[in-house]
Amino acid sequence: MRILSGIQPSGALHIGNYFGMMLPAIELQERGEALYFIANYHSMTSLFDAEQRRKNSMDVALDFLACGLDPKKAIFWKQSDVPEVTELAWLLTTLTPMGLLERCHSYKDKLAHGISPNHGLFAYPVLMAADILIFDSNIVPVGRDQKQHVEVTRDIAIKFNQQYGDTFVIPEPQIREEVAAVPGLDGQKMSKSYGNTIEIFGEEKPTRKKVMSIVMDSRTPQEPKPDAEKNIVVQLLKHVAPPEVARDIEERLRAGGLGYGDLKKNLFEYYWNYFAPMRVRRAELASNLDYVQQVLREGADRAGAVARQVLTRAKCAAGLD
Ligand code: ADP
Ligand code: TRP
User: Fold this and answer.
1) Ligand 1: distance of its center to the CA of 222 in Å?
2) Residue 71's CB: how many other CB atoms inside 10 A?
3) Domain made up of 202-274: CATH architecture
4) Whether the model pTM is above 0.85
5) Active-site residue, 147 included
6) Is 1 exposed, middle or buried (0-12, 13-18, 19+ CB in 10 A)?
7) In this structure, which residue's CA is closest to atom 12 in ligand 1?
8) Ligand 2 within 6 A of 145 CB?
9) For residue 180, which ligand has an atom nearest its CA?
10) For FRET with 106, which of 43, 118, 158, 205 sits at 20 to 30 Å CA-CA?
């Protein structure tokens, strides 16, 4: 079984990325052949600062390795080091109906947020399809917002297979319902583009301040809160605290007597401790960047070998040999 996923180097990674995509990906590396990459070509659709991209890419590598990606089990590389995906993307683009891309929520959301779109942003799901199909991937672990892109990939693959004969494996998205959309500080989906994130490796003081500033309603500590399960802090706590602790805190909030300040302090402490061992590992990796570069280079070599085989198969099928 081949498992594949990618993450864009478009800013500091947050706990929504961690619980929605990275943790499932890390757990899946035990279960099959895992391939994970830093989607730096994709980041070009919305980030235009070269130095920033370079820095973010290294940060994503450090974050992912610190969080448990094991280069002995998973292949890990930078997307642009396997440039064959861009060639495959061209083959796929000629079979992609405009309407399929026009219907993509993530594209429509960006338009609605006033972004003036470039062609790359529109064609983004085709490059993502190439990423997935060029490795004969079976399973794609992602958060809920990427589900439609995997469905687009399936549509394109089916169309190619019908047109040119059986060429691609049809992939499945894998989405864990309990972490499909981790809420941000303001209750919307946590996202870099909404400025509502708790970073995985944020600094202590500013992150504590962010957590303490989550806006709550005006009920007094003594008042019972029958809707405790809807509270954003409770929802976030469920990810970082042991289940029995999170349940106990939720019950105390429901019964009345637990103030919002104390609730938020609990969230910060459990969050901070949850990522403590990874913070140590990250600092070790940051002082050994040569090792990280070497992991990415070796990953690119291994990924490239697979990609070239599948690209040759696709070119042959399309009469380009
Ligand atoms: P962002 O919305 O912050 O820009 P990305 O689009 O780069 O995040 O997402 C990277 C991965 O993390 C994707 O698989 C995405 O589905 C997942 N992800 C992002 N935000 C969340 C969230 N709030 N909850 C669950 N998964 C998320
Ligand atoms: N579009 C994904 C995101 O923004 C990143 C990505 C690029 C990806 N190519 C992929 C994810 C292939 C899974 C498979 O999060």
Assistant:
1) 36
2) 17
3) Orthogonal Bundle (1.10)
4) yes
5) no
6) exposed
7) 17
8) no
9) 1
10) 158
The catalytic position among 73, 78, 189, 210 is 189
CATH 3.40.50.620 fits 2-182+289-317, yes or no: yes
Question: Can you tell me the distance from the alpha carbon of 149 to that of 126, in angstroms, rounded to the nearest whole number?
Answer: 9
Measured CA distances, 170 to 21, 136, 159, 234, 311 (Å): 20, 8, 11, 38, 16
Q: What is the DSSP string of 18-50?
A: IIIIIHHHHHHTTTSEEEEEE-HHHHTTT---H
**Whether 230 is catalytic:** no
User: Residue 2 has which token pair?
Assistant: 């081949």
Ligand 2 centroid–CA 268 distance in Å is 29
Per-residue pLDDT of the chain (321 residues; tens, 9 = 90+): 999 999 999 889 999 999 999 999 999 999 999 999 999 999 999 999 999 999 999 999 999 999 999 999 999 999 999 999 999 999 999 999 999 999 999 999 989 988 889 999 999 999 999 999 999 999 999 988 899 999 999 999 999 999 999 999 999 999 988 887 899 999 999 998 889 999 999 999 999 999 999 999 999 999 999 999 999 999 999 999 999 999 999 999 999 999 999 999 999 999 999 999 999 999 999 999 999 999 999 999 999 999 999 999 999 999 999
The CATH 1.10.240.10 portion of the chain extends over 202-274
Residue 55 annotated to the active site: no
- Side chain identity at residue 163, one-letter code: Q
Measured from CB, residues less than 6 Å from any atom of ligand 1 are 7-8, 10, 16-17, 20-21, 142-143, 145-146, 179-182, 189-193
Using most ligand atoms within 8 A of CB, pick from 142, 145, 190, 193 the residue to mutate for ligand 2. Answer: 142
